[in-house]
Model the fold of this input.
Amino acid sequence: MKVAIASIGNTLEANIDTSFGRCTWFIIVDTESGGMEFIPNTNRDMEEHAGKAAVELVATRNVEMIVSGEFGMKIKPLLDSMHIQMVVIEDAEKRVSDIIALLNNRRK
Done:
């Protein structure tokens, strides 16, 4: 499964970002192959619709799940229509590596 993790940086030790649409980076993790891709969020400075543009960006990577600290109100219906699961992590101190470990444990 491919998962997009909203992050403040482009390393595994970076914390997750508390804002999905305006996050700095997306880390795309393939839980089956272990592959990763680091994508800068080029939409983060948009005046409007940054969340929708961010969904479109990660959807091009065929993700099935998105992990972030927070999502905008309009994002859930969009993700539902695309069959992409939304996971909210309330602990902003969680690192990308912590999320990957949780995903790997979930597979076992």
Observations:
- The two ends are 13 Å apart (CA to CA).
- The beta strands are 2-7, 25-30, 36-40, 65-68, 85-88.
